[in-house]
Amino acid sequence: MNLIETRDLSLRYSGAPVLSHVDFSISKGEIVTVVGPNGSGKSTLIRALLGVLKPTRGSVMRKPGLRIGYVPQRLAIDASLPITVARFLSLPQRQSAETVSVVMARVGVEGLETRQMTALSGGQFQRVLLARALLAEPDILILDEPTQGLDHPGVESFYRLVEEVRQETGAAILLVSHDLHVVMRASDRVICLNGHICCEGSPEVVSEAPEYRALFGVGTGGALALYRHEHDHDHDHVHDVPDHDPADGALGAEGHVHGDHAGGRR
Ligand SMILES: Nc1ncnc2c1ncn2[C@@H]1O[C@H](COP(=O)(O)OP(=O)(O)O)[C@@H](O)[C@H]1O
Ligand SMILES: [Mg+2]
Fold it and tell me: What is the pLDDT of residues 225-253, one digit of tens each?
């Protein structure tokens, strides 16, 4: 049985449909990545899957009792509202200090319990959001562009952490991302969305699909070319990312992957 499934899902806000005839499913333990240009309806699809938005037509089915851990695309913390990491992790549901410190250690932000949320680096902030999602002991983790604003080593290490968590917990992962080259390696299935599902399949199949290439640019080097296409612009920095982020640093030390990317950017 699928964890979440849509049938002929269409959704509009007020004007034209944002999603049309989307048949989507994700099953136990799967890693599914949704890619698509800005405004292609990715976050809308996620909100429909969560049940926050009602379909205009079609249906969304969630397995009864399904526990979802959700990492939103953006979470603005009001700078005038002080809140520590530990307190943030105890909202909306109270958690013991022990539980909080265990989950913080799991995502690599141990010892930051009393730090203000607004004082975290971009990488640390995303890890705290992941920690909060993990507190739900989810059957499925839904991550909507969770690495937006992170530098490249930060993106790498965040996804590696997600893969570790998946191996340990067996949770399914539904990821929305622009970080194609990183994500595709780990995905069982990639869905290319542009208001409707353009193409879908294994990472290899999708990266060769004409529909996908039409959206993401045709290059000579497959994933490498896609990477260049995606990263030649500045990302919005939601949070300042310091040069040396302890949470991101561990991976930056592993050079082989970055060497490829550096080559791809020329
Ligand atoms: N609350 C909303 N009200 C009206 N239009 C919206 C709303 N949220 C998103 N949209 C529009 O729906 C389209 C898809 O948005 P979104 O799902 O956020 O795309 P993506 O996440 O792929 O960038 C965009 O044209 C966006 O402007
Ligand atoms: Mg979005």
Answer: 444 344 334 444 444 444 444 443 333 33
Residue 69 Cα to ligand 2 midpoint, Å, equals 17
Average pLDDT estimate for 161-186:
87
Distance 259 CA to ligand 1 centre (A): 36
What confidence category does residue 148 fall into, taking pLDDT thresholds of 50, 70 and 90? confident
**204 within domain boundaries:** yes
Is 115 part of any domain?
A: no
Structurally, the chain folds into a number of domains equal to 1
Q: Which of 11-20, 124-133, 241-250 has the lowest mean pLDDT?
A: 241-250
Inter-CA distances, 35 with 1, 25, 79, 190, 244, Å: 24, 15, 32, 7, 29
Question: The dihedral of CA 121, 126, 130, 133: what is its sign?
Answer: positive
Tell me, using a 6 A CB cutoff, whether residue 41 lines ligand 1: yes
Kind and range of the H or E run holding 69: strand 68-71
| Most informative mutation of 43, 44, 45 for ligand 1 (most atoms within 8 A of CB) | 44
Query: Does the predicted model carry a pTM greater than 0.85?
Result: no
